[in-house]
């Protein structure tokens, strides 16, 4: 059989296609210079002659007008301008990044106010960034040691006061201050007068004159604390206290007695918080409060007021019906009858502190459990007559979140079984309870929502117990 040449195959194909086309001619595309027929294109494909790759003609679109028949007066197509990419700073080294103000502003948010004090000492750039934003220092109170400040030069003290102003501290504490120190602060930097809202004087020999000057200078002062200021007299408080004060703390001031409380009751009609620690205050002082304080006063803390009895409690419940926090810590003459008055008349209480009240018994806890339905925190430290029966009363309080039973020497494992049913209890302190055993303490793993558990000085707590509690209460802070 003779071989068939490629040219013969092409000729046969051309003849066959010619018959099928039946004389139909095809126009060549305007966009191509070659005017060959379809047969010539097939020949080129098979034989490799001419251009092997032939570009297919463009398919006209029905949506767009042809180039030769463009509609008259048609608007030109909109010009889309490409957006210019934002130029971002390029940092070559870590040192350049650590000097960029934008980065540092966000970087310093990851530190506490105390840690920022150390960061401000790194360099001038870091100090300027930290000092420029007052919210970095929220919750931090600068303490001025006046004994050390007396050795500074006037320009050094002025520079320190200017740094306080730059950081925007709303609080200021003076330690060991005298009248001269108070006048120096006023004269050296008067611009602090509109910034300070909270003033604390601790362990100071400042007298009535110095206190009066400070009260006149700080025009927006609302919170005042006097601790260990033995030179301030009751007459001085009558002269100095301003009606804008809404929070007052008087602790360990030897001259504070009933008349000082009378000045507070008369001169501070918008008082919201009052913290008093004075050994010479009696029931008569609490009689100075009137219903005008009852509208605003919500927090009353009486610490170690040894002379206050149940009669003083009567004055409290009649004059201050809106209290939400009451502390009678160290008021050793308060008995169960006084607690009954509190439970019946102060039903808005959320915090109650009866620590170091040795006359409190289980009966008082029964009154609390029956009437104080909003109570969230209860402190019974050193209430040595509280037993498992009283703990059983407390365990029925669904709103209670914090319970402190430090050195309650009669609580046993049976009382802990009652506590295990308090599903809303988040903080529990059993420090110094000598009768608790490891078996009883291990049952506390039933309190799955516990956040803090204090077991210091508990003879029944062992290393194995602490490991067991931490294993079953992973979200709880166990204090050894």
TrEMBL record:
It holds the Pfam family DUF7885. GO terms for biological process: SCF-dependent proteasomal ubiquitin-dependent protein catabolic process. Residues 244-369 form the F-box/LRR-repeat protein 15-like leucin rich repeat domain. One of its GO terms (cellular component) is SCF ubiquitin ligase complex. SUPFAM superfamilies: RNI-like (SSF52047). Gene3D superfamilies: Ribonuclease Inhibitor. It comes from the Eukaryota. Residues 58-80 are annotated as: Disordered. This is F-box/LRR-repeat protein 15-like leucin rich repeat domain-containing protein.
């Amino acid at each position: 059989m003779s071989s068939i040449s490629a040219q013969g195959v092409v000729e046969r194909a051309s003849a066959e296609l010619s018959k099928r086309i039946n004389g139909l001619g095809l126009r060549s595309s305007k966009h191509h210079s070659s005017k060959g027929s379809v047969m010539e294109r097939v020949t080129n494909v098979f034989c490799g002659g001419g251009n092997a790759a032939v570009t297919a003609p463009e398919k006209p679109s029905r949506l767009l007008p042809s180039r030769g028949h463009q509609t008259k007066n048609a608007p030109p197509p909109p010009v889309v301008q490409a957006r210019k990419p934002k130029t971002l700073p390029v940092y070559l080294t870590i040192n350049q990044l650590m000097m960029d103000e934008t980065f540092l502003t966000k970087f310093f948010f990851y530190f506490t106010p105390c840690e920022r004090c150390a960061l401000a000492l790194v360099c001038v750039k870091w100090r300027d960034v930290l000092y420029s934003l007052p919210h970095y220092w929220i919750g931090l109170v600068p303490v001025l040691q006046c004994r050390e400040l007396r050795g500074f030069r006037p320009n050094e003290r002025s520079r320190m006061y200017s740094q306080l102003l730059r950081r925007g501290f709303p609080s200021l504490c003076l330690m060991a201050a005298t009248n001269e120190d108070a006048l120096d602060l006023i004269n050296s930097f008067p611009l602090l007068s509109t910034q300070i809202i909270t003033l604390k004087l601790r362990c100071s020999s400042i007298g009535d004159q110095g206190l009066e000057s400070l009260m006149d200078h700080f025009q927006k002062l609302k919170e005042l604390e006097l601790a260990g200021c033995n030179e301030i007299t009751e007459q001085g408080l009558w002269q100095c206290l301003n009606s804008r004060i809404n929070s007052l703390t008087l602790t360990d001031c030897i001259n504070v007695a009933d008349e000082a409380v009378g000045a507070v009751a008369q001169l501070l009609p918008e008082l919201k918080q009052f913290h008093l620690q004075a050994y010479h205050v009696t029931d008569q002082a609490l009689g100075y409060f009137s219903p005008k304080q009852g509208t605003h006063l919500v927090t009353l803390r009486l610490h170690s007021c040894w002379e206050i009895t149940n009669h003083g409690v009567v004055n409290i419940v009649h004059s201050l019906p809106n209290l939400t926090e009451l502390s009678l810590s160290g008021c050793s003459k308060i008995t169960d009858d006084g607690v009954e008055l509190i439970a019946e008349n102060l039903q808005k209480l959320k915090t109650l502190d009866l620590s170091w009240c040795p006359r409190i018994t289980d009966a008082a806890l029964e009154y609390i459990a029956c009437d104080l339905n909003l109570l969230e925190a209860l402190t019974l430290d050193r209430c040595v007559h509280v037993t498992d029966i009283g703990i059983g009363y407390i365990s029925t309080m669904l709103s209670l979140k914090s319970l402190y039973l430090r050195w309650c020497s009669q609580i046993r494992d049976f009382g802990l079984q009652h506590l295990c049913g308090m599903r809303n209890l988040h903080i529990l302190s059993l420090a110094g309870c000598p009768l608790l055993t490891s078996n009883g303490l291990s049952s506390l793993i039933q309190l799955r929502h516990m956040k803090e558990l204090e077991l210091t000085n508990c003879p029944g707590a062992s290393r194995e117990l602490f490991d067991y509690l931490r294993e079953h209460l992973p979200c709880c802070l166990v204090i050894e």
